[in-house]
Amino acid sequence: MSTQNPSAPLRVVVVGYGYWGPNLVRNVAERPELELAGLCERDPERAAAFSARMPGTPVIADFDDVLADASVDAVLIATPPRTHHALVAAALRAGKHVMVEKPLAKTAAEARDLIEIATANRLTLMPGHTFLYSPSVNKIRDLVLAGELGEVYFVTSSRMNLGKYQSDGVVCDLAPHDLSILMYLLDQPVVQVSASARSVFQDGVPEVAFLTLTFANGTAANVQISWLAPRKVREMVIVGSQKMVQYDDTAADETVRVYDRGMDIKTPKNFGEHQLSYRSGDIVIPRVEAAEPLSLELADFARAIVTGQRPRSHAELGYDIVACVEAAEESLRLGGTPVAVPALTAPALI
């Protein structure tokens, strides 16, 4: 691992210039804590597209050459999920800090292995769950932590679009977004998941799925994800005992709405029936500061490297999400039978 001067920017290499790589390159170039040391990309067309945007910045075809460069402090990996374990493990063993796009790995066992390698080498391993840095999501988390919603009963979430087809399936592609948001908002792991799905174009590659999640504290959530929808939907409704919140990530503004609505139950003084009364109060639209989540995520990655503190999107959360996705896919194979989500074993914890 290179010796890092705290006052000097961290030298990072972006690995992969497909869908997400250009966003990483742009944000790295804009962050004062980071210096773009190069791009690792084998595809000539993608490499040429990068060079046209960032002339003079090196393009490295061989990942081993990146790992052998002692001046490189960290790598940002934006490659298909099936490649994550091998690339991340090699980078960590070479002494590089790693931020890898979601999911952390394809299986819980792979994720656990990566955490153990990072821990043994005292390196920052950070999965790229960008929604944890969304100002709107953090506004809702503040409301939950402050008790504004009361007890959170359940959450419904929809993430749909006429989306980009991925061979890993819609659960691996889209579910990590909603899982990261839900685990972050509730500060609870998922202990059980059941799933149903439909594969239309290719057997074993579902384009639409429905997940039912049970959290450790009893809160329930239903998540609908789909690549086959007429319009883009990114909506979540959190129902609490005191208030409810609607989160619409596609809205130009007013992404968060807080509803003082619900039902109250009155316990009878005698043996009469319980009575429900409906409550309909104000709708509040809190102010949400504008900021690019990916830029905030990269700043947190740099801070974690320099200080040694755990980033907000930490590796244990990455494991929990991978384990939940793996359990959901097992539930699909079992025809929707609920599957327990295994917790990270103690020896792997950072």
Outline of this structure?
The protein is α/β, with parallel strands linked by helices and 350 residues long. It has helices at residues 21-30, 44-53, 63-68, 84-93, 108-120, 135-145, 170-186, 293-307, 315-333; strands at 10-15, 34-40, 59-60, 74-77, 97-101, 125-128, 152-160, 190-198, 208-215, 220-226, 233-240, 244-248, 256-266, 275-284, 339-340. The strands form 2 sheets. Strands 14-13-12-11-7-10-9-8-15 form a 9-stranded mixed sheet, covered by helices on one side. A 6-stranded parallel sheet has the order 3-2-1-4-5-6, with helices on both faces.
Gross CATH architecture of the largest domain: 2-Layer Sandwich
* Poorly predicted runs of 5 or more residues: 346-350
Radius of gyration from the alpha-carbon trace, in angstroms: 22 Å
Instruction: Report the sheet-strand fraction.
Output: 25-35%
| Biggest beta sheet attributes | 9 strands, mixed
Shape by Cα distribution: globular
* SS-based class: alpha/beta
Fold-level CATH name of the largest domain = Dihydrodipicolinate Reductase, domain 2
Helix-strand string: EHEHEHEHEHEHEHEEEEEEEHHE
pLDDT averaged over residues: 92
The CATH superfamily name of the largest domain is Dihydrodipicolinate Reductase, domain 2
> Tell me, what is the CATH class of the largest domain?
Alpha Beta
Secondary structure: number of strands = 15
N→C terminal distance: 19 Å
